[in-house]
Each structure stands twice: as C-alpha cells, then as structure tokens.
Amino acid sequence: MSIRFDILWNYKDLFIRGIWITLGLTIVGYTCGVLLGLVFGLGKLSKRKWIHYPCKWYIDFFRGTPLLVQIFLIHLAVIPTIFGHSLGFFVSGALALMLNCSAYSAEIFRAGIQSLDKGQMEAARSLGMPHGLAMKEIILPQAFRRMVPPLGNELIALLKDSSLVTVIAATDILYAAKVVAGASFRVWEPYILAAILYLVLTWVCTKLIAYVEKRFSTSYVPSKRPKAFSFSRTISDGR
Amino acid sequence: MIKIEGLVKSYGDLEVLKGIDYEVKEQEVICIIGASGSGKSTFLRCINLLEDITDGAVYIEDVKVNDSATNINEIRTEVGMVFQQFNLFPHMTVLDNITISPIKVRKMSKADAEVLAHELLTKVGLSDKATSYPEQLSGGQMQRVAIARALAMKPKIMLFDEPTSALDPEMVKEVLDVMKQLAHEGMTMVVVTHEMGFAREVADRVVFIDGGYLVEEGTPDEIFNNPKNERTKAFLGKVL
Prior knowledge:
heterodimer, A: MetI-like fold, 8 helices, B: 6-stranded mixed sheet, 9 helices, 38% helix
C-alpha cells in the first residue's frame, strides 16, 4: 500500500470549507457559550432558590448528557418542533455547542468566583457597594485571571468536540475527510489530513491561550499589563 | 449613635452571641476585648450587617439596620470598616482602591475623589504610594491604605476588626498611631483588639465579651485596674 497525499489536492476546496465550518462553529459556540456560562454561573451562586435551582439543573443536564445526544435532540426534535422545519446544520450545531459550552464554563465561572477570598466581597460591600457593582468592579476582574487556563481548556475541548456535528451532515473537517474516503476508497490520507488540521487549529488555540495567560499573569504589579479588564453587565443579587 | 438590643447570632445550632445590649455614643472610642472565639468579631460584623442578625436589633442613628425596608448600602456608606486581613483590592492601585467607592457609590467626580485620596494618603503617611499596587506594600502600609479607603466614604463610624493582628510586631505602631489620630479627631470608633495598651490609652469604654455574653464594660481604668467579674479577671490575668 502506498500513501498518496497528492490525491487530496483534488478535494482541497472541501477541506477548506471544512476548516471554515469547524472554525465558525467553534467561535460562535464558544463565544456565546462563555457569555451564557457567566449568566448561569452567577445564577448558580445566587442565594435565591428560584434562581439557583434552575441554573443548577441546566448545568447538570448539559454536563450530564452526551453532546452527541444534545446535537440530535436539538437538530431533530427541538428546532423542527419550534420552527416547523430544520434551520440547517450550522444553527443546530452552533446551538448545541453553545449550550454545552455554557454549562462547562458556568462551572468555571462559579469556581473562579468562589476561589476568591470572601474578604474581597465583604470589603466592597462594607464600602457601600451593592452586590452587582462589587461583582463587576472587584470580584470578576480578579476571578477572570484564574479562569483563563480552564476557559482555554474548554476552547480546545470544544474545537475537537465540534467534529461531532458531522453526524447531522455539517460540512466540517471530519465530514470532508469522510466524503473523500468514500469517493476515493482511501482511508489513511483523508483522516490523517483531518487529524493534522485539528492539530494545527488546537495548536493555534494553545498559543492564543498562552498569550492571554501572559497578559493576565498572576502578579498585579504592572509591567506590560493592559488596562484593567471590565465586564459591562452582570447579574445582581442580594441586598 | 449605635444602639444594640438583644443581639443574638446563631450559625445553625451554634449560638455565638447570646443577647447583647449596648449603646455607643457619638465620638466615643469603644474597645472590645475577649478571647478568640468569644464572639467579639461577630458582634462587630453584625453592626454593619456583614453577618445576618438572628434576633434582636441594631440601630445606627435611630435607623434599624436589620430591617428589610432599610437600604443597607446607604447605612454602610456611613460605617467604615477595617479588616484584620486588610482586604485591599489587589488588581487596583492604591489610588484606585481609595477612589472607587467615592466615584461609583457617592458619584463623586474622578478629580475630586483623587484630591480626597491624596489628602487621606498624606494623613496616613503614604503620600508617595498612590501609584503602587497593594502587593508592593508592607502589611502596615496596606492596613493604613485600608483605613484611608474606609475614610474616603467620609463615614461617621469606623469599625476595626483586629486591625493589627495580622501585622509583624514592628508595624503595629504605625497603624495604631493612625487610629489614635482618628480618635483624637473625634471619630466614633468600635475596635476589636488584642492591643491592651491601645485600649487602655485610647478607649473611652472597654467591653469584655466572653462566651457570647457581654460580661463587663467600663472605663479602661475600671476594667484593667479594677475588674469586677471573675471571668474578666481570669482573661486579663492571662493577657496582661
């Protein structure tokens, strides 16, 4: 058996499209997922039971069920029921990745916030700051630094998990490999190329995360520190 | 100025404060002494509602603090607090630590807040540290910044929760000196402390708390030189 990567050249457009779809799904799913995760993470921290429990149940559900099952549920059941027809693989795929990512990042936010000394919140509250303001100005900017590494892990995990959307015929990298394998009757070349493409993408993400981590390093004494990070909106809770 | 009636605080089945009555008058300096775990810090933290009050009432200038109709954030702007662990905001400069609350809560302009901050830093002897970050400061310097931060809200009352207990011995004096200066300026202060020398010298009244009860209170002279209660005598015998 001879390995012939040159035959893949005929299918380059398929793979290029695959890269864009994989990237698109990951970026949309991750960005929306992290923002939604902040909401659910803060919600789970709420002392009000009617906020705490729905957020907890949501997180438990999306962390406790396979992403593959979530993709099928959303693509074949939820969206057709609401809209009467499919909205295409991209909407279903991005939605599933977003919901899944939000549950994991909610836990990252919750843990990051809870890892801070509670004296920080007490000091802010003792100065008369309402809970939401203290969260935005004091807690989240500090917690965010601790969240960068786990949020980075989540990005890489999500990028790889996005290959699952191939089951609803999303034309991502893995789908391209499958099509080529079927058309050319060759298995080694397309799947190795798919593996290499995912590897390159995760490598880029790793570099990106390392850069962000460096910018928000644990020391607060500024050398090349960017302006303090601030979140524009947070949930307020408590007195 | 502060009135405490039948204050009870429980954590589940554990009753930490077992019904305390006390009144603090304007410009008084009250020092609270007692063994670790006696409830003295909890007592202080109930005054600005950092701890939920289980039973009884706290009034600050005749406003009931533990009332759902009371805006606790408004009360807290009038009651400054200094913590054992300083609790400075590590991601902000000293200047930002001091100005954030006046700007965000009091809606003071940034320029005014910075003028105020520089005044307060001069007062606590740290006028050259405005652009430093907390982790660049010594413990004593951090605690003085924390005092300046609390003063920036122009509070009528200052609460101190063992402000020198986390400090190296050589830094205790610089913090106590700032507190003495505040006391001389007429600030109403409630200080939980193990510094008996400070209590003797600065306090108007000394309160001894033990086992969740207010056991004895009086002038420093009465408490330190002529304690009446056996438990007070036993405690002072150990620490003096």
